[in-house]
Design goal:
single chain, 333 residues
Amino acid sequence: MIKRIPIIYSLAFLAYLTFAFTIFPVLSYNASIPLIPLIALGSWIGGRRFGLWLLLTGMIYFYILYQYYADIYIHYYERFLAPLLCLAIIELFAILRHNLNAIKTANQNLGRMVAERTTELNTLTDLLIRDSEQRRVLHGQWLHDGIGQYLTGIQLYCASLADQLLDEGNPSASIAFALRNQCHSTHNQIRHLARMLFPIKIGDVGLITALHELSSCFIDLKNVKFTTRELGELPELPEDIALQMYRICQENANFAIFHLNASQVDIQIRATKLTYTVTFGHNGSAKSTEGKELLNKLIDYRLEQISGTASSGYSTHYEKTIIYTIPNPEQEG
């Protein structure tokens, strides 16, 4: 269509010249009025220089026309009115066209800058997420292998001390046993925290087992009702996808329990021929919005990495649920 514009405009200009020559005896100098929008359009299409060439062509044409019809047209002073008006219109439309082109160029540059900044932001976000995962691994291993081993040693010392005091008939043996039991309870909490920081065996045991372990950790640490249900035979997910889905469930559970005071959390997992879905529901209060926006952005980023989507749903147990959907890996394979 763009290539046809010069042809259409040229035909319109030639048609006007023919029209002006034919109708001049009737309209006199008014026959030059249709030239004004034609020059305005030409200045818009081709710029100031093209508009001036059109004006020069029109002036030459009308000079010849005035000479040809000199016997019926004697108002010489009116011959300058149309050229002056056309000059003003050429300048106006040339400036408008220049400004439009400048705006388009600025928009293109802005769009390119936005794309570059978006790419940089995505790269930085990816680095932050990867760094966060690495830190979780390090902290989880430090809790499990570092503090966990110290607590194991303390338990052994307490057990040995309690047995020795018991053999000696020392009443302080009960204190040693209580200390051992307390160390054992603390050790279990440390192990749960370590597993929540990083599910080390998720690549071996899969998403379902990791979520069952997550449920167990929350139940022991926060005394909440946390269920994970499998609906049908589920395919195993690749480790990177499974880890992202695990983090989505974990971050939702953290927010629901610690921010919304949820006492009940439910995760349902099912698969169809095309999709793999995780439905997350809880009974927490929806009044608290602190940290919600940040959580949503983080989850949106995780979903983007695995081509997933999120949608809202409703159930008989909870006022609102969130459904996360990803392509079925068996179909992609």
